[in-house]
Model the fold of this input.
Amino acid sequence: MSDYIRRLDQPTDSQRQLITPEGVDLRLNLGSAGHRASAFLIDAAIIIGIMIGLTLACVLAAFSLEAAAKALGVSWTGGDAIGQFVILLWLLGFFLLRNGWFLGFELGPRAATPGKRIVGLQVAMRNGGRLSADALIARNAMREIEVFLPLTFLLYNTGANVDGWIVLLGLLWSGIFALFPLFNRDRLRVGDLVAGTFVVLAPRRRLATELTQRRSALAPAFAFSPDQLDVYGVKELQVLEDVLRRNALGAQRIVAERIRGKIGWTPRPGESDGDFLDAYYAALRTRLESRLLLGKRRRDKHDVA
Amino acid sequence: MTSESFQAELKSARFRREREADWRRLEGLLKRLETQPVSKLSDDDLIALPVLYRATLSALSVARETTLDRALLDYLEGLCTRAYFVVYGARPRLSRRLARFFASDWPAAARALWRETAIAGLLFALGAGLAVWLYGRDPDWFYAFIPGGLAEGRDPSATTEALRKVLYDGGHHDLLAIFATFLFTHNAQIAIFAFALGFAFGAPTALLMVTNGCSLGALLALYAAHGLGFQLGGWLAIHGVTEIFATCLAGAAGFHIGWTLAFPGAQTRPQAMAAAGRRAAILMAGVVLMLAVAGALEGIGRQLITNDLARYGVALTSAVAWGYYLYVPRRRRDAKGRV
Done:
């Protein structure tokens, strides 16, 4: 399966080819460095939140039990036990969360931590194969030098007996690992390189409405001549689609005026911008798609072929 | 173009209308598979899944050539990608994966990395030897290898009696669980760190191996100078055999990725790295388990067992067990478990 991914000249630099065994290219989009960083920060915040929450719960339990014991006049010595439990919680809990949070969630069916899900990312093998536990262990063990090593050097600075220059050198050195994703085209972090994985966008999209089936798009009042439809290409059509789907009235007015001016359309009395755009979109798409069936894809308005 | 021609339903819109139900069913199946195990799916759904996936995939490639509806294309691309990872990314059950890990993967990884393990062991021994030799020349070297905080009074100025007391002090029995947990998490984190540092061409990992050896050597030299070498040996070996073995394996895993990064061999560097990383990761999973055992032996076993010979007995047993498990080849069993 290792040859399913090949770099090709793709429209965007962040798109990667993944050809399924059925021979269809899925065109995966890489997660950007910004996506990755925000996903990690969300996860880190959740982990710290969990630790603080659990600790507070233990402390509260200790206090309320002690108060209850006092009220009942019973001597209570469970405070030490709860104190020990908190220590144990921090030792084991932080260890498990630090090493297991990412591993556990990425092993799951969505191959993404909560942070990645919120941002819309998932982990995948670069060769399109199945994500294995060993790859994910390798991927996440490397976080030690990507995150915790630079952090260690940062915190060292407060210690008095370490030479500042050595700390600075260490910070620069470990910064190479932390900023690794910025230095390669596939946005791989050290862990991705070691595990053979990468992180791709996996947005959940709902099936949007078919714009050409709206009632206004079918209204017989609008009849455009071929000349009026040959003004634009696919790119403009999709910009128009975007405007219609976002349903922003201000933008629709501006766009409708622009199109009317360009194709020389005189609005009838009572004609709304939305209805006009719906009808023009349907007509333009019909025109461009019927030419597409004949093998002619008009990319944009400058494409006169 | 007349008004009638676009009042009729668009070809691409009809294409979508006829297939939409299939896509929605696939979407529903995927959503269910994300929250519940495959076994919860009915037979009908299970059979339908790959069929729906292929139908949707072919719809995607048709749509790319015939429709200009960006939202539809985006939807189909997303749906096909999700379905692809479900259909081709299915993983065996956890129990089977664990069984395979213990039965073959872990020992196989340890055997494959025997050279790296030997190098890590040699570096550790080198560190220990160096510390013993330097201690012999000047006991003050002890402070260079074991910082004051860790020594807890065990330094060249301590009396023999004080040194002996550390070896047989049972500690607080009610804190044993915390002590064992602390030892385990601390050691495991350092082992994972040593592995990850291997990425820097193995150099920091080598340094860690030597310095770890130095601490051991310094302690040995100190106790030997007081005639307590044998007793300290038992105190250390009861968990040390497991712990030092695990440390060497972690170092070996680090060396493996560092070496592969520098010399990827016949494969491309990313390919070689991916293979090496996964092999090393299997070994690291084993290392963490070994350190959990070592933590229990050190935190609980050593506090309860205060007889030197019994301590040596545990050490010997663990050495033989790990060695046999990891390095003695076993005959392959077929699927039914026959040899």
Summary: Chain A touches chain B through 86 residues (CB under 8 Å). The mean pLDDT of chain A is 85. The beta strands of chain A are 15-16, 28-29, 121-125, 197-201. Chain A has eleven helices and four strands.
